[in-house]
Description:
Elements lengths: L27 E2 L6 E5 L8 E6 L2 E7 L5 E5 L13 E3 L2 E3 L6 E2 L5 E3 L19 E4 L2 E4 L16 H4 L3 E10 L3 H9 L8 H4 L2 E11 L2 E10 L6 H6 L11 E8 L2 E8 L7 E9 L7 E10 L6 H34 L9 H13 L1 E2 L14 H5 L6
Helix pairs in contact: 2-6
Amino acid sequence: MTEARTDNGDGTTAADLSPGEVADLRRTGIDPDFWYPVAVSGSVPKGGTFPAVFAGERIALYRGEGGTVYALEDRCAHRQVPLSMGVVEGEALRCCYHAWTYRGNGRISQIPYLPKGADRPPRGVRAYPVREAYGLVFVFPGDPEKAFGSGLPELPAFHSPGHRTMTFSRTVHCHYTFMHENLLDMNHQFLHRGVLGRIQPKLLGYETGPDFVEARYLFVPGGGRKDRGAGLLSAEGMSGGSTPDVITVRSQYPYQTLQAVPENATLPAFSLWAAYVPQDAEQRVNHTFGLLSIAKPSLPGALHLAWPLIRRFTERVFAEDRMAVEAEQRAWDEQGADWNQEVFPLILHLRDMLRSNGVPLRPAPAATPGACGGAAGLSSPPARG
């Protein structure tokens, strides 16, 4: 394996490790210099707010009367009360406590009781670059100067008239790297035997690079009872077919995708895009956002009728995966380290890639007194270790 470049979670780097020792992947932070979904668009109504979070940073989303979504540090510079509890007025956000008002760029626009002629505090709160796409609200929590040189993921199937997309938004109590491993390592299909029946996954091959790992599997049905939604999810399943599928899974840092192409077909029956967004500062909890785009069959209305069954099937699979990865996290918490004995070369490559693209976990911010009772230390972008 290649040498890890991130720290071990306690300030040590790979250079501090003993020969052959590898930094604990579960102590590696996700790189904030990417666009991350933090809410479903429908959770941020016009004239309303939504409390979001990224790796322990609380973010107040609000949608102005014109429909634009803004993202601010979720604490008023005055008394640190969450701005997500505030009131939207036009394109501004007013704190619910003393009515300090903020523009979308984080600047203070009004303090109602400030004496005439008195200067407003020079600093407001941090504003995050924010964009909407695919029915999700994305923020760029890292260096804002890098935001507009960094593109959103490209998901052409989302806008295709030949597809319909199902959105997932769930909290999972585990480090984001467990999620990557779970989807990429398709040898865990025994876990889903009650939903998928007996599946014999065969690894056809894989490729690796500095920021990606991609694997191709052949899924051969082996009999057994499976959920009706499993067959309906594939294009051939609409007609009752049960042929092998070629499954391609790609971890393209920091996102992950999956495509399923029935054998002898050329186009995917469905494709999945997923992002695992850390919630807490230690990054032991993530919020999973997923977009499952399903190809519409030739029979009009068939997918609409099958939708509830497909939704039930995918929720059952996700629930089983969540059970497993949360159990992995509990074991890590109990043991205080990663005791895994991994033997699958594909996953060893994946862990290397995730380590080398990750960053040191950020230390807890120290309170820095400022002009507004601590706002000076909190309103500037957090330091990246």
